[in-house]
Amino acid sequence: MEKRLYRSRTQRMLAGVCGGIAEYFNIDPTLIRLGWVIFACMGGTGVLAYIIAAIVIPLSPVE
CB–CB of 32/18 below 8 Å? Predict the structure, then answer.
């Protein structure tokens, strides 16, 4: 089966982007969220990247 990137339905705080990335790479979602916050504090591009990712990455299918 092909591995695909989806927004998470279970590991979500806002839109499920960080949870989906964590599920894709099989790591703790807290690490992804922490990295995203650090990225957002360094110039604010992380906020824009999160919004774009929330729009572009599809929600995971219902299992």
Answer: yes
